[in-house]
Amino acid sequence: MRTARRGRAAGIAAMFAAAIALGACSNLLDVENPGAIVEDNLKDPQVIPGLVNGAVAEFQRAFDGVAFYGGIFTDELNDYQVFFEDRPIDLRDVTPSNGLLNSYVYTPLQRARAAGDHNADRLKSLLGDKASSSLDVARLLDYAGYSYLLLAETYCQAPIDVGKAQSPDDLFKAAIDRFNQAITIAAAARAAGASAASADSLTSLAHVGAARAALDRNDKATALTHAQAVPAAFQFWVTHSDNSLRENNLIYDATRTGNNYASVDPAFLNLNDPRVPTDTKPSAVAFNVSFFAWIPYQPSSYEKWNGQLTPLEKATSIRFASGLEAQYIAAEAQGPTAATLAFVNARRTVGKQAPVTLTGDALMAELRDQRRREFFLAGYRMGDLRRYKQFYAVDQFPTGVWPGDQKSVYSTTATCFPIPQSELNGNPNLGS
Q1: 108, 65 in Cβ contact below 8 A?
Q2: CB 177, CB 152: distance < 8 Å
Q3: Could you give the 3-state DSSP secondary structure of residue 165?
Q4: Which residues lie closer than 8 Å to 148 by C-beta, 6 or more apart?
Q5: How far apart are CA 83 and CA 282, in angstroms?
Q6: Own/partner pairs, 348-357, CB within 8 angstroms, 24+ separation
Q7: pLDDT in tens, 80-122
């Protein structure tokens, strides 16, 4: 007891001493943080790589969320996780309160969009007249454009910088604007002596993005113009690494870690197509022993695809823009022509399928089927299904009984993700 009291007395004395010391400090809040970035340092050209690489890193993580949860929401994957927010995404029964969509899709996409936009603006200010021929500015505009594009394909509407909600069409227009700026700047950089290979790559990346955004607006003339400017061999990748969880391939994390809970949807099973390789039999789900999941292998948009059963890895990269995609866009924009039929049969050959002699709507349906196989688990399916339903009256969203428990039923109305509740609460231009 005595020891306790002595300890208490010593504590009280220490508090008084601290109070006296604090009272003597007239500049208590004038603290220094040696780790903080001084504003003037952001005007130093040495920060340019950080501005560019930071925006790229934000986009790459956001892309994974779109590819994975877009696949769950559509007909690419089924989610057998026991967490209460997972299954509603699979059942197309999402609400603004769904925290997974906020954490893995919306917030990363908005961070990527803001990083691309704001870092491009900062770099323009830093470089002055040189910004109009800077490949770094072109790269930032490309990534900003793709962030707008994915927001538009994934969300019913979305605000920009605490503004009012914008429609997908407005977001697509914003994406195209950034892609057009990138094309102009990359051309100027090439003319000024910058690396021709880098300039051409960023130009093609912008053309593919602009073509995709224009097609999503049903502006087929613009889509065709941009698509035809892309070399057939062009490819651009979202890269992954095994350095950290943030850098891992998210689809690997859901299917290959021993905690597997994502299964290939029946719509993509038994296709006998090397572009969509899956297990020959299902395996038990780690956290839900009543379910068995069909595990995906690397599909044709993944870096080590070879038509065989090549497992996904933590560091498996994903192709998110290509000359092949541009060819698909051009075929859809042109409609059921002889060129479209030739292209479809060329892709059927890759998929080990016999050629067809189709015309009209049947040919376009076959083009859509080849496209879903070609870009399986690469972040396209949600935008594709929304476009098909809106402009072609073709509804391929999953309906009926959910394959997991053979009891739950898919929603028949949702085609996009809602603005998260946190944004609704915190953005004064949206309201709660």
Answers
A1: yes
A2: no
A3: strand
A4: 113, 171, 172, 174, 175, 178, 213
A5: 21
A6: 350/274, 350/275, 350/300, 351/271, 351/273, 351/274, 351/275, 352/272, 352/273, 352/274, 353/273
A7: 988 889 999 999 999 999 999 999 999 999 999 999 999 999 9
pLDDT top residue among 43 and 318:
318
Task: Show Cβ contacts of residue 147 under 8 Å, excluding neighbours closer than 6 positions.
Answer: 59, 62, 109, 112, 113, 116
Q: Each residue of 7-25: b (16+ CB within 10 Å) or e?
A: eeeeeeeeeeeeeeeeeee
Question: How far is it, in rounded angstroms, from Cα 190 to Cα 147?
Answer: 25
Helices and strands (H, E) in the chain, number of each type: 15, 8
pTM listed for this prediction: 0.89
The residue behind tokens 């769904």 is 98
Percent of the chain at pLDDT > 70 equals 89
- Rounded-to-integer distance, Cα 56 and Cα 368, Å: 30
For the record, the structure tokens of 56 come out as: 């790229």
**pLDDT score of 313 more than 80:** yes
Residue 172 is which amino acid? F
pLDDT for 41 equals 55
Mean pLDDT for all residues in the chain: 90
Q: Is the pLDDT of residue 366 over 80?
A: yes
Alpha-carbon gap, residue 37 to 423, rounded angstroms: 28
Q: Around Cβ 183, how many Cβ atoms within 10 Å?
A: 23
Pairing of the two strands 165-166 and 235-238: unpaired
Rounded to an integer, what distance in angstroms lies between the CA atom of residue 213 and that of residue 233? 21
pLDDT of residue 139: 98
